[in-house]
Design a protein that fits this description.
The protein folds into three domains: 2-109, Trypsin-like serine proteases (Thrombin, subunit H), CATH 2.40.10.10; 121-198, PDZ domain (Pdz3 Domain, Roll); 213-322, Roll (Pdz3 Domain), CATH 2.30.42. The protein contains seven helices and 19 strands. The protein has helices at residues 2-9, 39-42, 98-109, 143-146, 166-174, 234-238, 257-265, and strands at residues 14-19, 28-38, 44-47, 59-62, 67-72, 93-97, 121-123, 135-138, 154-158, 161-162, 181-188, 191-198, 213-215, 224-229, 245-249, 252-253, 274-277, 301-309, 314-322.
Amino acid sequence: MRDRARARDARRSVAIAVGRTFESDRPNMAVGILSAVDRIWGKALQTDAAASPNNYGGPLVDIRGRVMGILVPLSPDAAGGVAGMEWYDSGIGFAIPLEHIRQVLPRLEKREDLHPGLAGVNLKGPNLYTGPAVIAACHPKCPATSGGIKAGDQIVAIDGRPVTRAAEVKQEIGRRYAGDKMRLTVLRGKERLECEIELAAKLEPFQHGFLGVLPMRTAEEKGVPVRYVYPQSPAATTGIVAGDTLISLDGKPIRDRLDLIEKIGAWNLERRSKSTCVGTTPCASSRSRSRGFPKSCRRRNCRRRRTFRGNRKPVRLAWDRFR
């Protein structure tokens, strides 16, 4: 923290970018000022000294010779070996603060690879700088989901530091690596919750839930009418046929077609889905060959219930059939 406070106090002070040339006894130096701190989403110091590949890996020092950081190629929007090449000798150079290097030096000494930390959240709003830090979606099996974070939560503090804008969340995550821990404070309605998450190096691919029906596009007062059922799909195996109306999913009412798509999209399946009978309905072995569902279902108004099993808990689906 002393290094960061010193860097903030040293803004607009003289900064010298030191590097190597082909002649070892004559180092390459460029003089400028320390123009900003916490740039590139909180990762770097910024200087207007003319930094180039000759300086990368060298120190950025103040007028007294104290090291403020290590010069590196960085870009706000890109990553990889060519990131920051657009800033060569442009008067915009970046350096990793010495405080940050000291924190990760023990891991580097153990030859650990440092990967950018990922929380697995998407923030609402087209502009990160004006809107609050409201979570639009959480990736399944990500650190945020494991920590109890849900879509709709608003992040109000990170490690005890107040957060008012979405950009601040990206900045706090951007300066951390995989394996680092964060303590989040969120608002869920009027409830204030705290949780700790450990950032990950990568997120596992999401497998979208598949029910196997095409819903009608017409609006209904209750439920979603089924237009088509894919053969050998979970819906077909359970006994849903075209003309049925889906009224609830996992115990929650289905308002319309978009609500059905959203609920199915929230499924996180690790293995192939299978269906089983629940309640008082006969088992699947007693299905009628002609109609594809139990004989006892052949009455005018028939409400069925089925359970689709996913990776953690069954997903219950209810529908109406009118004859």
